[in-house]
Amino acid sequence: MSGTLSWSKRFPGGCYLGLNAAIDRKAAEQMVAIAAEACKQGYQGINICLSSQGLMLHHAHYLDHMLSALPVQLITWNLGSLQGGALLTYLAGSERYAVKGSSFLFNQASFDPYSGRLAEPFLRDRLKFTQYEDQRTAELIAGRVGRSAEEVGKWQENELMLDADAAVGHGIVHEVRAFTIPADAFVQQVAV
């Protein structure tokens, strides 16, 4: 990097990465690439700003593991609505904030069948897969919020919807606060 300033020198206000889309392969790959570059540029903390329906659970698990492994403090923000797999990305934060009016929806894994013939062995396999995804997601969430996997499993089963204040009481959010970005911050939106 000789001859150029690093992001952290040019943007002393910190690093803010936004995702306002479903978590699919492209979104997960872009978020990891940008966050890894922010680490390389010397940021000690990254603000991950989210509003997402989640969508593809296996990509959300990948994104969670990759972000959690980075040698940087993750600060996550719910700026709208978080559902399903997006909760995993949010819960990767060591500091978790939400704006007033934001929401959290816990739901079960699902399978959207394609058109065509669906035989019993295939349906049994899909059922086992979705049950496994529900269990591993519940265990990960439970570990992050200090609850049992059984309790989180009930949240998923009952499609628990929480506002920001209720999410504090469930251990999901550390604090409800207004969101601001310093004028001298680096801001990058994940474009999908």
Question: What would you say this structure looks like, in words?
Answer:
This protein has helices at 7-10, 25-40, 57-69, 86-91, 120-145, 149-157, 164-169; strands spanning 15-19, 45-52, 73-83, 95-98, 103-105, 161-163, 175-176, 186-189. The chain is α/β, with parallel strands linked by helices and 192 residues long. It has one domain: 2-enoyl-CoA Hydratase, Chain A, domain 1. Strands 1, 2, 3, 4, 5, 6, 7 and 8 form an eight-stranded mixed beta sheet that branches. The protein starts with 6 loop residues before the first helix and ends with a strand. The model has no long low-confidence stretch (mean pLDDT 89).
Brief digest:
The protein is built from seven helices and eight strands; from the N terminus they run H-E-H-E-H-E-H-E-E-H-H-E-H-E-E. With 192 residues, the protein is an alpha/beta fold. The protein has a single domain, classed as 2-enoyl-CoA Hydratase, Chain A, domain 1.
Order of helices and strands: HEHEHEHEEHHEHEE
Helix content: 40-55%
CATH class: Alpha Beta
CATH superfamily: 2-enoyl-CoA Hydratase, Chain A, domain 1
Proportion of residues in β-strands: 15-25%
Count of helix runs: 7
- Can you tell me the residue ranges where pLDDT is under 50 for at least 5 consecutive residues? none
Number of strands: 8
How far apart, in Å, are the first and last alpha carbons? 28 Å
- Total separate domains: 1
Question: Under the CATH scheme, which architecture would be assigned?
Answer: Alpha-Beta Complex
Task: Indicate the radius of gyration in whole angstroms.
Answer: 18 Å
Task: Indicate the CATH topology.
Answer: 2-enoyl-CoA Hydratase, Chain A, domain 1
Return the average pLDDT rounded to an integer. Answer: 89
Name the shape in a single word: globular
Main sheet overview? 8 strands, mixed
Structural class per helix/strand content? Answer: alpha/beta
